[in-house]
């Protein structure tokens, strides 16, 4: 039996109506779309993690290696254990909370913050093993489950347009068209790449997203070579930040010390010393809450796009991808990075046809391959990879047709889920809006019997969470 037949048999490709070629292409697509994390995660965490005698450049390199290892480990578990096409890596937002709120804002040692990540991961493993996480997700109201996909679509599109520098912040309107759009090479190249990708996609070209990403990348490098590097040139050259991470003042010589991550691995153990129990519990609670609902939302939303959900809107065998997420978080904290979570960018691979763990295995292999030369993983500029998010965002809006919009007890929580998600830049907050509004509108409509007691408890838990997060306690 050849390698192709072995892979097809192990991942049961025939029953998922897919092929090895399709799965490999889907994995490549997902990897290209989320490869930015190799640069962004070290840039964020290096603000908080400092070790005497280790400079900023080497520290970023060490965190880049840890990022790749944790992402590869978690995604490998997803592939081999869960057989799902979801990719994982240290999560954006949670890494910023780790660095700027917990360590720099609250003055908590970074080792203690890592200890909180490990504790959260262990709790997740325990809850997943007994089925508690799956039970909570099944309590999500049906309109919320059906709306998550479209909310994620809008969220992805907003992230994409921001990275492409099509939109920008504005003090009056909060968000507007970039005021320098017409003279910003990044914006112009991004939009041209987006339209090119849309054209390929509309013609049904297999691999259209990968072609669009690579074509936009090539155009960006040509523009950089011609000197069109106005407005933040590192985004045009793409790999320059990553190159600086691993090079030590020379443009050709590697620093092998970057691969010596011993100062980070196991550092969480010292974080348990002299811990303030109340503060530590709040940190674990926040990591736990956001990671739980971000992961749940991603699995349900992307699962909906892949056609994985059953007639009740549940993802069958969701305990397996949840366990992969829990193991990833635990291993990541032990290695020295913030919470690992399932990436919404997995939707790009799903849209390219990825349906099994072979897609995730491809992503994991590419993360490991990137260890040999980290700038390879970051060689795709963020603006190029994120045109895929806009394409997928448009596609995922179609999930909203499954919602019973003529029933206000469905329309209100579904609409709140969809709208709040991009406006707050958080999957978890969108889910919260839907979960809190659902029992209220059901009660008001005289349909109290349709409200599960657990749904009231979920709504109450979100109220408590927001009280903690926005009252100045943290």
From TrEMBL:
InterPro entries: Azg-like, Azg-like_bact_archaea, NCS2. The keyword Cell membrane applies. It is a multi-pass membrane protein. One of its GO terms (biological process) is purine nucleobase transmembrane transport. It is found in: Cell membrane. The keyword Cell membrane applies. The chain crosses the membrane at residues 24-49, 61-82, 89-107, 113-132, 144-161, 181-202, 209-231, 237-257, 264-290, 358-380, 387-405, 417-441, 453-472. Keywords: Cell membrane, Membrane, Transmembrane, Transmembrane helix, Transport. It comes from the Archaea. GO terms for cellular component: plasma membrane. Belongs to the nucleobase:cation symporter-2 (NCS2) (TC 2.A.40) family. Azg-like subfamily. This is NCS2 family permease. It comes from Halolamina salina. The lineage of its organism: Archaea, Methanobacteriati, Methanobacteriota, Stenosarchaea group, Halobacteria.
């Amino acid at each position: 039996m050849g390698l192709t037949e072995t892979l097809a048999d192990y991942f049961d490709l025939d029953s998922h109506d897919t092929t090895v070629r399709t799965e490999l292409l889907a994995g490549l697509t997902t990897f290209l779309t989320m490869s930015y994390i190799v640069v962004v995660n070290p840039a964020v965490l290096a603000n908080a993690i400092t070790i005497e005698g280790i400079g900023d450049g080497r520290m970023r390199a060490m965190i880049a290696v840890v990022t790749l290892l944790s992402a590869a480990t978690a995604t490998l578990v997803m592939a081999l254990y869960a057989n799902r096409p979801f990719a994982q890596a240290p999560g954006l937002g949670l890494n910023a909370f780790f660095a700027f709120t917990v360590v720099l804002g609250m003055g908590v040692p970074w080792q203690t913050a890592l200890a909180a990540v490990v504790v959260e991961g262990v709790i997740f493993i325990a809850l997943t093993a007994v089925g508690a996480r799956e039970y909570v997700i099944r309590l999500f109201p049906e309109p919320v489950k059906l709306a998550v996909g479209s909310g994620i679509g809008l969220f992805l599109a907003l992230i994409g347009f921001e990275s492409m520098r099509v939109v920008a912040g504005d003090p009056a309107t909060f968000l507007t068209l970039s005021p320098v759009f017409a003279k910003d090479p990044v914006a112009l190249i991004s939009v041209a790449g987006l339209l090119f990708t849309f054209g390929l996609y509309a013609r049904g070209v297999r691999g259209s997203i990968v072609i669009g990403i690579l074509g936009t990348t090539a155009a960006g490098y040509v523009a950089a070579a011609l000197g069109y590097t106005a407005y933040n040139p590192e985004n045009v050259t793409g790999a320059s930040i990553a190159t600086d991470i691993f090079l030590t003042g020379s443009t050709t010589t590697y620093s092998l010390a970057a691969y010596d991550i011993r100062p980070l691995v196991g550092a969480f153990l010292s974080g348990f010393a002299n811990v303030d129990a109340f503060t530590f519990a709040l940190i674990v609670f926040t990591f736990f809450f956001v990671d739980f609902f971000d992961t749940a939302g991603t699995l349900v939303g992307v699962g909906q796009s892949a056609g994985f959900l059953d007639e009740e809107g549940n993802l069958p065998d969701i305990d397996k991808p949840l366990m992969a997420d829990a193991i990833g978080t635990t291993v990541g904290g032990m290695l020295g990075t913030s919470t690992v979570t399932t990436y919404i960018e997995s939707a790009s691979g799903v849209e390219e046809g990825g349906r099994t763990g072979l897609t995730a295995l491809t992503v994991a292999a590419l993360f490991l391959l990137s260890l040999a030369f980290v700038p390879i993983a970051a060689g795709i500029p963020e603006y190029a990879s994120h045109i895929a998010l806009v394409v997928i965002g448009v596609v995922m809006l179609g999930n909203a047709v499954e919602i019973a919009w003529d029933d206000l007890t469905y329309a209100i929580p579904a609409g709140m889920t969809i709208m709040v998600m991009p406006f707050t830049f958080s999957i978890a907050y969108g889910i919260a809006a839907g979960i809190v509004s659902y029992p209220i509108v059901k009660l008001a409509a005289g349909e109290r019997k349709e409200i599960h007691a657990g749904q009231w408890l979920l709504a109450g838990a979100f109220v408590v969470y927001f009280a903690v997060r926005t009252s100045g306690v943290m």
